[in-house]
Amino acid sequence: MDAVAVSGSTLESRAVQDRFAARILLFIEYLGGVILAVDVAVVFISVIFRYFLHAPFDWAEEVASGLMTTMVFLGAASALARSQHIGIDVLVLMLSPRGQAVAAAAAAWITLFVSGTLLWSSVELFRDTASQLTPTGLPQWIFLLPVLLGGIIMAAFALGNVLKIAAGPRRAALTPLLAVLAGIAGWNALVPDHALAPLHLLVLAAVGGLLIGVPIAFALAFGAMAYFLADPSLPMLIWAQQVASGANHFVLLAIPFFVLAGLTMESNGMSSRLIELLLRMMGRVKGGMNLIVILATALFSGVSGSKLADIAAVGGVIMPAIRKTGQDENETAGLLACTAVMAETIPPCVNLIIFAFVSNISIGGLFMAGLIPAALMAAALAAVAVIYGQRVDVEKVFVGGTKRPMLPLVLGAGVTLAMILMIGRGVTAGIATSTEISAFAVVYAFLVGGLAFRELSWRLIVQLFVRSAAMTGSILFIVAAASSLSYAITIERIPDQISTLMTGIGHELGPIGFILISVVVMAFFGMILEGAPALILFGPLLTPIAIKLGINPLQFGTVMVVAMGLGFFAPPIGVGLFATTAMTGTKIENVTRPMMKYLAVLIIALLALVVFPVFSLWLPRYLGMAV
What we know:
Helices cover 79% and strands 0% of the residues. It starts with a helix and ends in a 5-residue tail after the last helix. It folds into two domains: 2-248, no CATH class; 252-622, no CATH class. By secondary structure, it is an all-alpha fold.
């Protein structure tokens, strides 16, 4: 009886702890949504005051960036609690069930170690800068508080994740981790002349973490953390400072804003009306359903900025229609993944913003440089779609009276197209920055879309802000972690060494040879990492070399983003392809074969972009955005 009572008491205690953790998580997610809403308001109102009232807010950009930092760390903590951080599990899945459990436990231990060290180092950074002021006179500690709070929350959730693992795998994972740590420390102490250098530990930690399934953001942070711990001349507070600064950039605010605008379109009926109109206009032509996938993804990419958000919006509407008309769902899922590659260069793609930011090139210029390449890839996909497509009975889609009247449908689609044109016009005319335009897109989606269709409830609006904050928080935490890794490899002069090597290759093989090698590198790392870290790591390294070789940075940026997209969505291990199959309810082994013909034409189109710079440069030169 006593044992039973103790067991019951333990279960009840765990249940209480789980309920408390769930409440904390809910509070964090809603707080992130509130912060995103305030950020939208700050940027939108500051634009109104600057452009129309000629009374700019000097503090707006700094405050908006600080709020974004808070949202990033709250979102990262939320994703950690819900196990939503992206990782590479291809090798882990090859292990036995016991091996998979031990690898998952090791990944949880490393995530806890990183989170705890981030908390400790952020405390040191907080103390060191407590009396400093920002350029606008605000206390510096206000902008470091999010890092400190994020470290506390992530450490707590990481500890909770470790404790959820069964005792056996938990101990089995901790033992070799401690043995490796002790072995490294002992080797460096006993054989100092042959000690492992900080750079060696960086590579070992980052690559080893990725291979055992540590989430990408934490694996990158783990590598940088190992480097700082191994070098006594570098205070750990600098590591925390680099992580914080990586998430504190006003230009990156365009990412959560465009994601929010895209999710709002999906929820308020704008997306479904546009796709229904396309179905009724094009569904009956040969390959019409596939053409709709291509066109819909292209149109929605001009708003959401996120390729996975595009897939969710288009796939959520088109896949049921595909199944109702008896089409091959695997063919459509493969095409949908390939259209996401095509849409990588359609403004306001998140990866275009990130590449332009890290490579110090014009975001507006890169936006314009990507349009004609996207049209080229869309035309190539459309040709294949028509050749291999079929005619279908579109009326099967609307069985049950789901068809909307034509006039309201056209007007509703027009509301969506007006939003897309507004964004395009704002970018091409240079009326505002991409961040400011994205804030206008959010307001338009809520006010115009909400009033026109009346499908948004207050509860749904709150959920949209919460979802957007959580999604972009996990995305931008990768940017923050990669920033600390980039700082470490810069200290080691790795960029200079790579620059010398690649410059020599470029002089030997010529500019086209250099671009082709860069394409292979970017596609490979886009496959094994994820869009943002691949671009962050290699954009600043390769772009200056390209410029030295006489390659226009806008052409180079366009090619690199497309190459990364090909890797991200390519079988067998592209993370984006796994996400696509999950959202479409298909299996990757069934999707791979039918999508190969679409991948082939994308590769041909990419080679054309490499050989013929005019595809990327004509439009920005015509608009005066490039030389």
